Amino acid sequence: MNILITGITGFVGKYLTEYLLGRDQDVKIFGTYLDDRDYTDSHGKFPEVEFLKCDIADKLEVDNVIKKSTPDYVYHLAAMSSGNESDREKVFKVNVDGTVNILRSCQTISKKMRIMLASTSYIYGSGANCRPFTESDMENPIGIYAESKLEMERMAKKYITDQVEIIISRAFNHTGPGQTENFVVPAFAKQIAEIEKGINQPVIQVGNLNAIRDFSDVRDVIRAYNLLATEGKSGEIYNIASGTHYSIAEILELLLSFSGIKIKIKKDSSRMRPSDIACSVGSFSKIKKELEWSPKIDFKDTLKLTLDYWRSKI
Questions:
Q1: Rounded distance, CA 97 to CA 290, Å?
Q2: Which of 142, 221, 229, 289 meets the CB 3.0–4.6 Å disulfide criterion with 116?
Q3: Cα separations (Å) of 117 from 46, 74, 99?
């Protein structure tokens, strides 16, 4: 069985690769990457994986990857996840055109395959009164990334055939050890670890602490990805969520509770995002009912492990 993971060197891609290799020794995994530095790190960790350099926005490069891997399953994780209005064209070129390149190329291979597309919960926008979003809720994307992912979903549905089955996931926030400091949980964890080591003064820089998010452990998310790829219904959209929520202030408070040092909190205007979504919480009732998935890992344990990860890195 051949599996292709686009964006394999990313945070989620590494966890997914480890999970799939641990489940089936008979699997052959191919993975696309763009950055040579990421390749060096991942190749050392997964020598059995065949890494293929590919810009998914380049149709010829995508065709070569699909012909080389002839996948039975595709986990499409590669995306451009940030950008300002000036980056709109580039974000859409990667997230929409890049996905279309993959789907078109898959249709040229004479075998049945299943494709799991990683979309985002940010397509829903901000929820009123923090009511959990369901898959039937109206989309209200906020920001270029969410807009591009919604367009990706709409385009992807045009490429569903009996031969090429497509399942779409909308994962809510997820984190864990190894995530870069560009995200809120590792950003806090790294700062705390640096303070504990005496590198910085006992002051932590924060952005908007009022935002409310639904967080899952990355290991629960990749388990859901695998279930969707193998058992999800083609053409369907599935939320991946914990069904619970924390304010960013509560997350910071939990992380600080794991440290014995008294740390002051200071707001940093550069960390404020104008497109911040006030509340984003999801219902996982659909994936639970159809595939018997539910989160297993306590989020407090995720936070502890993430802090310990940064402690080991500093």
A1: 31
A2: 229
A3: 23, 8, 9
pLDDT digits (tens, 9 = 90+) for 249-273: 999 999 999 998 999 999 887 766 6
150-176, pLDDT tens digit by residue? 999 999 999 999 999 999 999 999 999
d(CA 190, CA 206): 12
Q: Which residues are paired to 51 by β-bridges?
A: 31
Span 37-85, pLDDT tens digits: 888 888 889 999 999 999 999 999 999 999 999 999 999 999 998 877 8
> How many C-beta atoms lie closer than 10 Å to residue 182's C-beta?
9
User: Do 214 and 121 contact (CB within 8 A), yes or no?
Assistant: yes
Contact 204, 264 (CB under 8 A): yes
Query: Tokens at residue 16, please?
Result: 């997914």
What is residue 163's DSSP assignment? S
Cα–Cα distances (Å) from 221 to 117, 118, 210, 294, in that order, read 13, 11, 25, 10
Residues counted in the chain: 314
Residue that the structure tokens 């790294």 belong to: 190
Token reading at 28: 């052959």
Question: Which of the four pLDDT bands, split at 50, 70 and 90, describes residue 127?
Answer: confident
Residue 66: φ, ψ to 5°: -65, -40
Residue 116 is given by DSSP the state E
